[in-house]
Design brief:
- This protein is α/β, with parallel strands linked by helices.
- Helix content is 43%, strand content 13%.
- The protein has 2 domains: 8-19 and 89-218, 3-Layer(aba) Sandwich (Rossmann fold); 21-86.
- The chain contains 9 helices and 8 strands.
- Strand 4, helix 6 (119-126) and strand 5 (135-138) form a beta-alpha-beta unit.
- Helix 1 packs antiparallel against helix 4, helix 3 packs across helix 4 and helix 5 runs parallel beside helix 9.
Length: 222
């Protein structure tokens, strides 16, 4: 199926749009290694995904706290301080020009995460790019973790478009796979991952960086 230029582009939030550096710094301040963040983030996803598979649900914040308890020796108060660092996130430098290019081309931009409501909004505000984003969507509203199909279909419905008129840009292969299985146009570029997982179906759009991903989306036929 030939993909068409989307009417709306949804961006994943953590790592794709927002830099997790403040969380990493908070771990270091608490006496942990900076490298611990990767393990904690991966276990957070595992916790959320497993709950979803068995028909349960946990908020992102609770899943992160549980993962942090499993991977570190931090007590409850120290873990709470690390969690507060999510309120200090800011966009990566390449995000503002990418969003501005889409909006200038008449494409609506939204964010889509399974993270705690308020995190994306605070980060966008800190980066001065709130006016470029039409909506911040968290699938906590429907108690679903991406890559559950309902999360992407809910996002399309919230934007008032058919799934094939919505694109999902993410730096995580599992997120792109979920979006594509739900009928969205999937867009992957390397940020948190060096390569796209070869065990998944290929992304509809693959680029070397975020700017290239936006160029490729805008080059699709209308």
């Amino acid at each position: 199926m030939t993909r068409r230029r989307p009417d709306v582009v949804a961006f994943d939030v953590n790592e794709t749009v927002l830099d997790l550096a403040p969380v990493r710094a908070a771990l270091v301040e608490a006496g942990e290694a900076a490298s611990l963040l990767s393990a904690v983030f991966a276990r957070t996803l595992l916790t959320g995904f497993a709950a979803s598979v068995v028909g349960d649900w946990v908020p992102f914040r609770d899943a992160f706290d549980a993962a942090l308890a499993q991977e570190s020796g931090l007590d409850e108060q120290a873990r709470a301080s690390v969690l507060e660092a999510f309120g200090e996130l800011a966009p990566h430098p390449d995000v503002e020009p990418a969003l501005r290019r889409l909006v200038s081309a008449g494409v609506r931009v939204v964010t889509l995460s399974h993270g705690s409501p308020g995190v994306a909004e605070a980060g966008l505000e800190r980066g001065g790019i709130t006016p470029l984003v039409a909506a911040t969507l968290s699938s906590e509203v429907i108690r679903a973790w991406k890559p559950a199909r309902e999360a992407y279909l809910w996002a399309a419905g919230s934007c008032g478009v058919a799934p094939d008129r919505l694109a999902l840009v993410a730096a995580h292969g599992w997120d792109v796979l979920g979006a594509q299985r739900a009928g969205l146009t999937g867009v992957w570029f390397p940020r948190s991952e060096r390569v796209y997982p070869h065990v998944y179906e290929a992304p509809h759009v693959r680029a070397d960086d975020l700017a290239g991903a936006v160029d490729a989306l805008l080059a699709l036929p209308a």
